[in-house]
Known about the structure:
Elements: E1 15-16, E2 21-29, E3 33-40, E4 45-52, H1 56-74, E5 86-94, E6 97-105, H2 111-117, H3 125-146, E7 148-149, E8 158-160, H4 199-220, E9 239-241, E10 248-249, H5 266-270, H6 277-292, H7 307-319, H8 324-327, H9 333-336, H10 354-360, H11 366-376, H12 390-394, H13 397-400, H14 406-416
Antiparallel strand pairs: 1-2, 2-3, 3-4, 4-6, 5-6, 7-10, 8-9
Helix pairs in contact: 3-6, 4-14, 10-11
Organism: Deinandra increscens subsp. villosa
Pfam family, one: Pkinase
Keywords: ATP-binding, Kinase, Nucleotide-binding, Serine/threonine-protein kinase, Transferase
Amino acid sequence: SYRKGGYHAVRVGDTFSGGRYIAQRKLGWGQFSTVWLAYDSLTSKYVALKIQKSAPEFAESAIHEIEVVSVLTKNDPDNKKCVIRLLNHFKHTGPNGQHFCMVFEFLGDSILQLIKYNRYKGLPLNRVRAICRCILTTLDYLHTQLGIIHTDLKPENILLVSTINPSNDPNRSKKGPILSKPDGSMNNGGGFVVNAIEKRLKQRARQAVARISARRASLGGFRPVTKGDRCFDGIDFRCKVVDFGNACWANRPNAEEIQTRQYRAPEVILQSGYTYSADMWSFACTAFELATGEMMFAPKPGQSYSEDEDHLALMMEILGKIPRKIAIGGLRSKDYFDRYGDLKRIRRLKHVPLARLLIDKFKFSVNDARDFADFLIPILDFAPEKRPTAEQCLQHPWLNKSSESSVQKLDSEMSKLQIK
Length: 420
Ligand code: ADP
Ligand code: MG
């Protein structure tokens, strides 16, 4: 698609906006754009440069994204809401046409990457909690303060906060996800510096660092700790929600079909109308995936049934039957349900409640499974209006638990070895 109306081909060293931004390397791409790491010669900082395809429909969607993200940035002057910040935007003319370009703050890997680095085993629950708190902070901000629905929440669209200097980081994408570097900006509140250590403790400390590095790598998939690094536990963990190309104002929804398949809410499949609570459904699916390493619902079409019908069946196997009134209440209900509210083509469902699934398949302890299911089940209510809001979720005891993680235990052990 590097042709008229499509992507703009970029080479390392290419400049944009009258020479201000210098392309360094490609960070990623989507259906609409390519995203490049660029050096901002005016501020001497690294930024993410999103270069949209040039055809009119892509230009239109870029204008929409710029409008939404400008609102997000403007209303969060203190940068506390865990949303991507727009720094600048301009147009760039190339051989394939005119491309809208957006300049964002540079962030790290996505949490999908984090799950992959952890070999799809799921992250430690304290880490899951920290990520959930970030996402809910964003959703509360979008929903109650701005009236915006994200509509495409998923692990791929949640990026780790990074303050690393990318050109100096030879480890990038080799050893583990990029999180942060000692820079002060995200180190308040927790962590410690592995630094000069008194002679008689040197040996012990070195062993401890090696042990902690190994444990840490196995627990969270982080690159090993070295001298000068800051160590993090769940407290300092931060991420940001990105990709507002599909976001919409709740009072003017822009599409019937929203969300990426696996994170799609039942009311979207049935076309019974959606609002903010559709984001909450995607949030719960994302939290499950973080904790288990597997997608909560991964529907496939069968010989006699569609992907949609399989999706509804999978939901009912974990969450119980969809109440008849809800099942038959959507514009598309007749495609899947008979008038009794039973699926037309998938008759036999195997009910495995969420807590049981967490214990049997994902080897959660009974307590962890019960607590996590208590948190998720209300968010996965088939009745959208019964789901808790992001603000209510933030009050839930599961999120505010302060059980000491293994990483924290190691950290406090380590800090005892520190000499001031
Ligand atoms: P699209 O709208 O085309 O899907 P996205 O905004 O999702 O584009 O960006 C595509 C990819 O580029 C993302 O999945 C991510 O890997 C990378 N990316 C986007 N924004 C940033 C950023 N601010 N910092 C680092 N990487 C980014
Ligand atoms: Mg995207």
